[in-house]
Backbone:
């Protein structure tokens, strides 16, 4: 993966631009898209969580990378959707799911020694790892800079659209000119 | 959805997720077609002449040696066939063929500067905090339903 900030900024940019066309894509749903973009990296839990107590509970060895596979991502998104109020479920599914998808897409640009994805995205269907484009490393900062520029452009576009909407509202709120005058 | 149904559903999904973690641990080489450092630490000689993928830190550059650490166990590999300039402290992902005496003949490598790791961890932690802040700003926990509801002003 590029760093998590790159994933978050890219998801913000995509969701904000989508919001220019999709009425319901208000800031709370942009936030859910960003959260979705972070979901696959729950697999990094091994950095802060001790496996042993969990393995004692589940009764077997665990492998956190499962959370970065297709099956793990689908289950994580399902947990997120279940936690959101029922009347937002469809929108939560779309935003969390598309955020997670954006994460996987950005990972397909990584450079790896084998030239293939660093995880099995289609598991448990298959362990096949698709080839990656080899554009950047996970530790480079320039992808984050590019994502920040995209996010800034999206923010400006959204501000302009909002100014336009406000101006239109003010126009419609003005009283009709008095025809007798 | 009332809160009992929601709690049961979430618990069920979390159990399924735990099941997936256990299931995936049984998938060879974490789903990779090649054994990794974990397998080589356990029994290096079982993978001789096989293509392997090892991620480790450079502990010497002449000859090039990387150290792989797993659960307190460390194994060192001498890596040959690398023409790039490598510095001590860097991390290497090595795709190579395993030979006797812990010699890996590189097919391809990717090197990551040591500071790149700290950058990635630091900036990722920042992103998690910022996103958490946005989540709290835009959503609130409904005690009646145990679900997240949009804040009125969001």
Residues:
């Amino acid at each position: 993966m590029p760093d998590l900030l790159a994933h978050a900024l890219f998801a913000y940019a995509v969701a904000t631009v989508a919001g220019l066309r999709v009425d319901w894509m208000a800031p709370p749903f942009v936030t859910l898209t960003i959260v979705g973009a972070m979901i696959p990296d729950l697999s990094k839990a091994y950095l802060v969580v001790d496996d042993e107590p969990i393995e004692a509970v589940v009764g077997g060895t665990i492998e956190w990378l499962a959370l970065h596979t297709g099956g793990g991502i689908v289950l994580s998104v399902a947990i997120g959707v279940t936690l959101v109020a029922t009347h937002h479920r469809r929108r939560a599914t779309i935003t969390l799911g598309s955020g997670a998808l954006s994460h996987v897409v950005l990972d397909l640009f990584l450079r790896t020694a084998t030239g293939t994805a660093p995880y099995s995205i289609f598991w448990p269907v298959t362990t096949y790892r698709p080839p990656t484009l080899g554009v950047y490393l996970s530790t480079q900062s320039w992808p984050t800079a590019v994502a920040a520029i995209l996010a800034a452009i999206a923010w400006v576009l959204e501000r302009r659209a909002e100014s336009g909407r406000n101006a239109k509202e003010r126009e419609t709120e003005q009283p009709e000119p008095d025809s007798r005058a | 959805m009332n809160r009992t149904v929601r709690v049961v559903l979430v618990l069920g999904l979390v159990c399924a997720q735990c099941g997936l973690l256990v299931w995936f641990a049984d998938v060879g080489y974490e789903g990779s077609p090649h054994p990794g450092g974990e397998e080589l630490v356990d029994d290096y000689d079982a993978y001789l002449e096989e293509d392997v993928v090892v991620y480790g830190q450079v502990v010497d550059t002449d000859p090039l040696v990387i150290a792989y650490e797993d659960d307190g166990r460390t194994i060192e590999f001498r890596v040959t066939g690398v023409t790039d300039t490598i510095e001590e402290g860097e991390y290497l992902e090595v795709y190579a063929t395993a030979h006797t005496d812990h010699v890996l003949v590189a097919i391809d490598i990717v090197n990551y500067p040591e500071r790149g790791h700290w950058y990635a961890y630091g900036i990722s932690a920042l992103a998690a905090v910022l996103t958490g802040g946005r989540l709290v700003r835009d959503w609130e926990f409904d005690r009646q339903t145990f679900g997240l509801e949009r804040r009125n002003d969001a």
